[in-house]
Design goal:
Shape: globular
Number of strands: 11
Strand order of the largest sheet: 1-2-3-4
Largest sheet: 4 strands, antiparallel
Enzyme class: transferase
Catalytic activity: N(6)-D-ribulosyl-L-lysyl-[protein] + ATP = N(6)-(3-O-phospho-D-ribulosyl)-L-lysyl-[protein] + ADP + H(+)
Helix content: 25-40%
Protein name: protein-ribulosamine 3-kinase
Number of helices: 8
EC number: 2.7.1.172
InterPro entries: Fructo-/Ketosamine-3-kinase, Kinase-like_dom_sf
């Protein structure tokens, strides 16, 4: 496969000594991933990872538009030589995935330019699958999650699947009653609220592995394909729960380093609330059975935390 000239222009390589091969899946139908292999002047091989996507929404902000296929955009990074987390016989060097994630989740997010304290949101759009997310800054985590995630994604779903009164009304009832009851700013951490931290945003088993950069150096636990924002640390556990997570050992080690938010008794329900977004996002992207998963979560949470008349 020939290397696109726009990519060749940004890399310190000789296109004549460079090849491109398909590598794995892009995660969504609009994206594809490739391995770029080039021979350097000293005779050694250097590897890069490239992800391309079709259409304007696939643009990697600030990284580039392909010249030879101008309707596609690209992102190029160092290549991660991956091996399965479960099947790898090579012990992982450095900190475990649980320890790395706990460190991320106990480090306060930076204060955005123009603000006086950390905020919930992100300085740029991030995508969860093919969904470009609304990351405008909010002081309140409950407001951010209700407006920028749940109400936002049900609007996307209606564009894809048509108006759905039951789904719309359930989301609205969840935002009005369940969200403030479970993750309200005056409720979490004994009314002290929570500090925004960087979250991965799409942390399921397909976005975690063991690997080394460029196939060199030690093999360690790595994650990739993030959908990041500044959020509640427990937000990452929603997508984990939806797709099976990383096991009891992972959870135990993680929570020893990053304890569950108070009230601990409501932890599982908060995770279910965060899982809801991903069911709605998958429904917006793929339709089908993901609707039933979202409806089931909302009806259960509304029974426990909502007004009886809203079911």
């Amino acid at each position: 496969m020939k290397l696109d000239s726009a990519v060749a222009n940004i890399l310190p390589i000789n296109p004549a000594n460079t090849s491109v091969s398909s590598h794995g899946g892009g995660g969504m139908s609009s994206a594809s991933t490739s391995k770029i292999t080039t021979k350097l002047d000293d005779g050694t091989d250097k590897y890069f990872f490239m992800k391309t996507g079709s259409g304007k929404e696939a643009e990697s902000y600030g990284f580039g538009q392909l010249a030879d296929t101008p309707n596609k955009f690209f992102l190029v990074t160092d290549f991660l030589e991956l091996s399965s987390r479960r099947s790898s016989s090579t012990p992982s060097a450095g900190h475990s995935l649980a320890a790395k994630l706990a460190t991320l989740h106990t480090t306060p997010a930076p204060t955005p330019e123009g603000y006086t304290k950390p905020m919930f949101g992100f300085p740029t759009t991030t995508c969860c699958g093919d969904t470009p997310q609304e990351n405008g800054y909010r002081e309140s985590w409950a407001d951010f999650y209700a407006d920028n995630r749940l109400r936002f994604i049900v609007r996307r779903s209606e564009k894809s699947n048509g108006r759905d009164k039951e789904l719309h009304d359930l989301v609205e009832a969840t935002c009005k009653t369940v969200v403030p009851s479970l993750i309200g700013d005056d409720h979490l951490n004994n009314s002290k609220g929570i500090t925004p931290v960087v979250v991965h945003g799409d942390l399921w088993s397909g976005n975690a592995s063991r690997g080394s950069i460029g196939g060199k150096g030690s093999v360690e636990d790595v994650v990739y394909d993030p959908s990041s924002c500044y959020a509640h640390s427990e937000y990452d556990f929603g997508i984990m729960k939806m797709f099976g997570g990383f096991g009891l050992t992972f959870s135990k080690e993680y929570h020893e380093l990053c304890p569950k938010t108070e009230p601990i008794a409501e932890y599982e329900d908060r995770v279910a609330l965060y899982e809801l977004y991903h069911h709605l996002n998958h429904h917006a992207l793929f339709g089908g059975g993901y609707r039933s998963g979202a409806v089931s979560i909302m009806k259960r949470l509304l029974r426990n935390y909502g007004d009886r008349g809203e079911l």
